[in-house]
Amino acid sequence: GAGVSQSPSNKVTEKGKDVELRCDPISGHTALYWYRQSLGQGLEFLIYFQGNSAPDKSGLPSDRFSAERTGGSVSTLTIQRTQQEDSAVYLCASSLAEWAGELFFGEGSRLTVL
Amino acid sequence: GNSVTQMEGPVTLSEEAFLTINCTYTATGYPSLFWYVQYPGEGLQLLLKATKADDKGSNKGFEATYRKETTSFHLEKGSVQVSDSAVYFCALHINTGTASKLTFGTGTRLQVTL
């Protein structure tokens, strides 16, 4: 596609439910990143994929968070047993190579946990 | 660890005023430095970058100079426009070979009025 596409754009869920957030990167981009943007907290790194492998998953806040990438393209971020503190905007970004000096971001998925 | 500190917003200016948004960093090694901008309803996009000390990045009338001696990368624009209203993020990157990610500041909201 023309840009990084994320879905859903908005998700409201109840505490304890599982949610899946999807990211479709720019075609041909091998690197993919997930960040979390919370009010007043800036952008918090979650995980980085190069192809289908994740050499850096150091930012995942707990074992309730997981992510996978298949076919070197689409990625899914899964949050199990959601908590209110998980409410945030989840941003996906892709890059042409492992480090090409620029990340291209999607518009994000806003998650609200009631 | 690596970190970025930005001045807190919001910053409110009249059109044609001079803009400075301060950014300082802490890093082990020699980072590349970036400013990203997030316009309302859009994803983050790269505004400018500098990869080594004394480099000046510039784009759309914005400038920032990589100052190693003060570990700073302040964003400036001589005459802001209403269309510059957005959130500005300072970021750094160090390629460690195994980890490749941007570390962001908390963002500074700029509001330009007529």
Task: Explain what you see.
The complex is a heterodimer of chains A (114) and B (114). Chain A is built from no helices and 11 strands. Chain A is globular. Chain B is globular and about 45 Å long. Chains A and B meet through strand 4, strand 5 and strand 10 of A and strand 6, strand 10 and strand 11 of B.
Terminus-to-terminus distance of chain B: 41 Å
| SSE succession of chain B | EEEEEEEEEEEE
Which oligomerization state do the chains in this entry correspond to? Answer: heterodimer
Major sheet attributes of chain B:
6 strands, mixed
State the share of residues found in helices of chain A, binned by percent. Answer: under 10%
Keywords:
heterodimer; A: 114 residues; mainly beta; four-stranded antiparallel β-sheet; B: 114 residues; globular
Brief overview:
By secondary structure, chain A is an all-beta fold. Chain A is built from no helices and eleven strands. Chain B is globular and about 45 Å long.
Topology readout:
The complex is a heterodimer of chains A (114) and B (114).
Chain A: E1 5-7, E2 10-13, E3 19-24, E4 31-38, E5 42-50, E6 53-56, E7 65-69, E8 75-79, E9 88-95, E10 104-105, E11 109-113
Parallel strand pairs in A: 2-11
Antiparallel strand pairs in A: 1-3, 3-8, 4-5, 4-9, 5-6, 7-8, 9-10, 9-11
Chain B: E1 3-6, E2 11-14, E3 19-21, E4 23-26, E5 32-38, E6 45-50, E7 56-59, E8 62-65, E9 75-77, E10 86-93, E11 102-104, E12 108-113
Parallel strand pairs in B: 2-12
Antiparallel strand pairs in B: 1-4, 3-9, 5-6, 5-10, 7-8, 8-9, 10-11, 10-12
